Amino acid sequence: MRTNRRLRWAAIPIAATLALALAGCTSTQLHGFLPGYSDPNAGEVTNQTSRISGLWTTSWIVLLIVGLITWGLILWAIVVYRRRKGQTGLPVQLRYHMPIEIFYTVVPLILIVGFFSFTARDQAAIEARFDNPDVKIQVIGKQWALDFNYVNENVYSAGMQVQPNAGGAPGSRVEKDLPTLVLPVGKKVEFALDSRDVVHSFWIIDFLYKKDVIPGKTNYMSVIPERIGTYAGKCTEFCGEYHSLMLFNVKVVSQDDYTAYIDSLRAQGNVGQLDQKYDRNQNLPGTQAPTAEEGK
Q1: Of 194, 192, 177, whose CA–CA distance to 242 is shortest?
Q2: Is the peptide bond preceding residue 76 cis, with omega within 30 degrees of 0?
Q3: Domain assignments of the chain as residue spans, ordered by start
Q4: What element of type H or E holds 155?
Q5: CA–CA distance, 18 with 241 (Å, rounded to integer)
Q6: Looking at domain 135-267, which CATH architecture does it have?
Q7: Are 76 and 9 a contacting pair, CB within 8 Å?
Q8: pLDDT of 66-110, one tens digit each?
């Protein structure tokens, strides 16, 4: 009788797992509810999104299985070893079971090493820079907007900074005022990320990856956009009063549309590159000892 009861409780997590596995899942659910997968026929947003979503969903599946086993064992122990009618006193408070102790020591170690290995592998692939990128973009963060230098084409686009409203009330953004970065589809793009003032973070949401924008240090991010569309971006590092309004758009377009956009920047007079003229980090420590003249 006791064996049958134990089997029934052990079947609960198994049945729950089967129910989840057999349930119909949408594309969004199959990719762990990550952004960029609402349309099952649209394809990947970049060359790296499948790698990122694969790591994410696989991790959750493994952890869900661990959770179901753990919850099942907890419920099993609660039911099987509950105090029964007529029992008195305390059960044995200390008991060793070497196989179980080895199990719950070795299995978590394997999980940790596995998660670390797969994460390190994917991060190395994502962080690898292209030998010969087709497009080079310098992104310059500032409170509270972004400037974009199209390095190969020698043109730029300056982002409008957030301004306070009348009476000093917090500023606001409208869609047409957002800085917009235009990228050609299917091309190797390298971003060089710099900051004029404080730490920012460059995040294109549907690209599923972000990089910090740090004063005095250039970070790099490489990607191949694979789906034409408009994607939202934002700063994800608190950078001051109007941090929440430091938004931007990214438009992935055809090569012809990209060329037309570059020509439009030239027509507007945006020729050349935005430099560090307005950089507020002029007092960053250098690598040389100060001279006598500098000390005066």
Answers
A1: 177
A2: no
A3: 2-82, 135-267
A4: strand 155-157
A5: 49
A6: Sandwich (2.60)
A7: yes
A8: 999 889 989 998 898 888 888 888 877 777 888 888 888 898 999
